[in-house]
Amino acid sequence: MRSSSAERLAFTEKDYLITFRGLGGAAMVDGEELVSEAVEQTPDIDNSTGEREPEVEYINFDDIEAKYRRDRDLETEQRKCRKLIFRRGGKEIMDLTGYNTTHPILDKQYDSDSGKPYFVLRARMEERTDQKNSKVVAFRSNSAFSTEWDQVEDEEEELPVIIGQDPSVAELGDELFLSVIEVESVPDDSQAGSHLKWWPRFFKGPDIRHLVPFGRGPDWMKNVTPVKMPTLKIITFTRPQRPGNEALGGLGQIGEVTTDTIEEIVDPTNPDILQKAEHINTRFKPGEEWGGIKYGKPLMNNCIGVIGHISRFDKESPLYNEDVDEKPKIYATFAGIYDPRTRKINNIEIVAMYDEFVGVVPKNEYLEKIVYTTGMTEPDEDGKVMIIQGVGDAETWSKVIDDPFAGLRLPAAEQSLIVAT
């Protein structure tokens, strides 16, 4: 049983800042079948009534990390990784950091002389010491698997620079959805004199060139990820987050809400639909770990293949100090299969970790172990996919892996049905 609306929403911005600072500002950064010891199955109890919710699984980051490290060969995994190069006017962009991109989207409208298709991704670009003036910039390449991307400089009207951070896209049949995180500097009485407030801004359209804004999401939320199902319903994953208040997401849980249309997530008659999205039954350990889903793909049996990040504080780092706000963190990329009937993620496995990306220059030493998942390509003819992640809050890296959803993807006819409606 969920807490009442009043209880869930009676949490002010002041409350958030107090708990946020006390827990190290975790929200400022944006990682085979699960072995039994990696999940704790515990009936959840609603503190307001004492009634038991459906059985909830708590992911154990330490255990799935230990399994991943035990099964991998580090040098082999490192060879699968490549840094993405962003260019402007044919030269690598050196004065800005480029990271936390979308996954590549086919530019259906582009008419190139070569006749080859072009792909577009958007990247968060900013100066290394300034996250208040980030921009979301469009880049183009002729392959989704490319590691070299050229800024789109001559088509500002259709592919404009957008003010914001951490873009993500989702293909909803014949419609495209884009989310961009907007930020605002708010004065306060802290030593820094201000704090950042953020929320997602949503865009939609028939393709990457014709997107228009159509609403925004809740304050303090990232990772709003919609997926259109063969049933034509839209399942939207959220990342509620209120440090110190587990009912509102704590350090960061995964929520889920089902609608008939994407417009319903910004319906003015139901303004709290995303904030109130019920937490799924696979959860991160309260007060210790957090994460989110950044990419979803409809699969057979009405399931969804998901890619996301799982995170925790790096308490073994010499930089870790319980009494200071800024703490080192570890983010890893995970893949899994979400079942809407049980509201659980099955077959969770880590597919990328920080030590596989060699030569990264992080934004600062507290962020050197950040691997923030941003998306995945469609599989190539060899059954390989490229997962994309922002590393160290400063660079974008790819990793080519075996398709984690092999054998579960929808037949072409069913995929076409989603697109045709």
Topology, please?
Elements: H1 5-9, H2 13-22, E1 39-45, E2 52-59, H3 61-71, H4 74-79, E3 81-83, E4 85-88, E5 91-92, E6 97-99, E7 105-107, E8 118-126, E9 135-141, E10 148-151, E11 162-163, E12 165-172, E13 175-187, E14 194-205, E15 212-216, E16 222-228, E17 234-239, E18 255-259, E19 278-279, E20 282-284, E21 289-298, E22 304-313, E23 329-339, E24 344-352, E25 371-376, E26 384-391, E27 395-402, H5 412-420
Parallel strand pairs: 2-20, 4-10
Antiparallel strand pairs: 1-2, 3-27, 4-5, 6-8, 7-8, 8-9, 9-10, 9-11, 12-13, 13-14, 14-15, 16-17, 17-18, 18-19, 21-22, 22-23, 23-24, 25-26, 26-27
Question: How would you describe what is shown here?
Answer:
By secondary structure, the chain is mainly β. It has a domain at 5-96 and 223-420: Tachylectin-2, Chain A (5 Propeller), CATH 2.115.10. 10% of the residues lie in helices and 42% in strands. The chain has 5 helices and 27 strands. The strands form 6 sheets. Strands 4, 5, 6, 7, 8, 9, 10 and 11 form an 8-stranded mixed beta sheet that branches. A hairpin with a 5-residue loop joins strand 21 (289-298) and strand 22 (304-313). The protein starts with a helix and ends with a helix.
